[in-house]
Design a protein that fits this description.
Distance between the termini: 26 Å
Strand content: 15-25%
Number of strands: 13
Order of helices and strands: EEHEEEEEHEHHEEHEHHEHEH
Number of helices: 9
Shape: elongated
């Protein structure tokens, strides 16, 4: 089921009234009718099934009813009281600000991948004029909501105000003090493959090595609670910025692949990190 992201919780009777643009989205885009079910994402990351119980096209109003323990879903099974998002490593993206259109794409893709927080970084190679485009009222909030509804992500992604690298690192020190830290670097010297940056390995383990480790009863490394990864803009990350990142506990990671655009690199990194940590 597609999900609908609600900024408000249902009332004491489990009813939620939808009007305005949200009415148009449910009625005209998703083409829902009375009796249809939809996955409802509530504040706090709770996901619940809801039924379309009433539609008033004249007043442009839809009423949703939250399923309770006596409710039935479309498979005829009891609806759950509520589901919390599955526990995964919390991903935080330090994105050196590219052109505004690319930044919006990066935010949209990061939301779809379940990135929890995005810190736009004003770097040495950030182009002038970024501030007006990035500070449009409600622009990122709209992108985040649309991306969550399209992808079904239960993660309530937050985009912080743009700041320079020292301030961004201070924010990370305050909010993610124990996070695993890495940044993507296009050069090979002084860098590590992703597995080494994540798990401290010098190179990827072969299946034989993994089998040998398992035979000795060695437990797999536990995934960290949070991981902060930094991605450069069109010009990359400057040498001075790399030195600052390294001095603050970041590891330089290099993907053995083609040269990627910054908007591709951010998406590729999120997917690669999640795949490595989940497995």
């Amino acid at each position: 089921m597609r999900q609908f992201v609600s900024a408000v919780a249902p009332n004491s009777k489990g009813l939620l009234e939808i009007t305005g643009k949200d009415f148009h989205y449910l009625r005209k885009v998703l083409r829902l009718s009375p009796g249809d079910m939809i996955s409802l994402s509530l504040p706090g990351g709770v996901l619940q099934d809801a039924t379309i119980c009433k539609i008033d096209d004249g007043a442009k109003k839809i009423e949703l009813q939250i399923c309770d323990s006596q409710g039935l879903n479309r498979d005829g099974q009891d609806c759950p009281q509520g589901q919390e998002a599955a526990a995964r490593t919390r991903l935080v993206l330090l994105q050196f600000i590219p052109k505004p259109q690319k930044m919006e794409l990066i935010v949209r893709q990061a939301v779809e991948c379940g990135v929890a927080a995005i810190v736009p970084v004003i770097g040495e190679y950030t182009q002038a004029g970024f501030d007006k485009a990035l500070q449009k009222p409600g622009r990122f909030e709209k992108i985040i909501r649309e991306a969550r509804q399209q992808s079904g992500s239960q993660v309530e992604t937050q985009v912080f105000p743009p700041c320079k690298l020292p301030a961004a690192l201070g924010l990370i020190d305050k909010n993610e003090p124990a996070a695993l830290r890495l940044f993507l670097y296009e050069r090979t010297e002084g860098t590590l493959p992703l597995s080494a940056a994540l798990f401290g390995q010098e190179q990827d383990c072969s299946k034989a090595q993994e089998a040998a480790a398992a035979s000795f009863g060695l437990a797999k490394s536990r995934a960290p609670k949070s991981c902060v990864y930094a991605v450069g803009c069109e010009g990359g990350i400057s040498p001075a910025e790399c030195e600052l990142l390294l001095s603050r506990g970041f590891k330089a990671a290099h993907f053995n692949t083609n040269i990627l655009r910054c908007e591709t690199a951010s998406l590729y990194a999120a997917a690669a990190i999640q795949s490595a940590l989940d497995n």
